[in-house]
Amino acid sequence: MIELLIAGITLGLYAGFSPGPLLVLVISQTLKHGCKEGVKVAFAPIITDLPIIVVTVLFLSLISSYTSILGVISILGGVYLGYMAYESFKTRGLTENIDVEKPKSFQKGATVNFLNPSPYLFWITIGGPIIINAYSASALSPFLFIIGFYALLVSSKIALAYATSKSRDFLTGKTYIYTMRTLGVVLLIFALYFLNQGVHLLIK
User: Fold this and answer.
1) How many helices (H) and strands (E) does the chain have?
2) CA separation, residue 62 to residues 153, 162, 184 (Å)
């Protein structure tokens, strides 16, 4: 159960800090309209990810008896985690030019996140399999992963909104870059675990 919480926290931190459309929107709304608007964007994934999680878990439940398919999904998850680790290692900070006209921050955040392919790929190859495996141990276990994931995803984006409202230099500073490097190491460990699990499922 502790491992699930740690996995949720680590992946949530990566999702919160990694450069992407939602992070750019958090920063742009903060710079243009203040920290409060950036915080509104940070909460958007809690709403938009729910249908993605439900559909993904139902799909994986239906194919749970096909170990070879699950093995392929697990290997794809390992590859994706490896890519995430690579992205973390090569991060040099966020320097995108930002231009936003109006608030409506939550609506914009929800739209950006819903149209972003990353949440779909994450829940199909990584988050969904973790939830399925956790549920086989305990009905409450998946909630530890989900709570850890979204608590850190949202709080890290809120922290970035606050840091940006004080100084945009934080986004290119050493603290941000070292945080991404550390997450990269942990993500690489998770990638190896997923790859190992996938191979075992394929040879079952």
Assistant:
1) 10, 0
2) 29, 43, 32
22 and 157 in contact (C-beta within 8 Å)? yes
What tokens appear for 100 in the block?
């936003």
Is the separation of the CB atoms in 14 and 127 below 8 Å?
A: no
Contacts of 35 (CB under 8 A, 6+ apart): 161, 162, 164, 165
Distance in angstroms (rounded) separating the CA atoms of residues 39 and 121: 25
The answer to whether the beta carbons of residues 60 and 129 sit under 8 Å apart is yes
The answer to whether the beta carbons of residues 28 and 94 sit under 8 Å apart is no
- Predicted confidence at residue 182, as pLDDT, reads 86
Residue the block writes with tokens 């790929």: 121
Q: How many CA atoms lie within 13 A of 143 on its CB side?
A: 3
Radius of gyration of the chain (CA): 17
pLDDT tens for residues 36-84? 888 988 998 888 888 889 988 888 888 877 888 888 888 888 888 888 8
- Cβ atoms of 198 and 74 closer than 8 Å: yes
CA torsion sign for 42, 46, 52, 58 is: positive
Please tell me the pTM assigned to this model: 0.76
Q: Which of 174, 70, 164 is nearest to 124 (CA)?
A: 70
The two structure tokens encoding residue 69: 């398919």
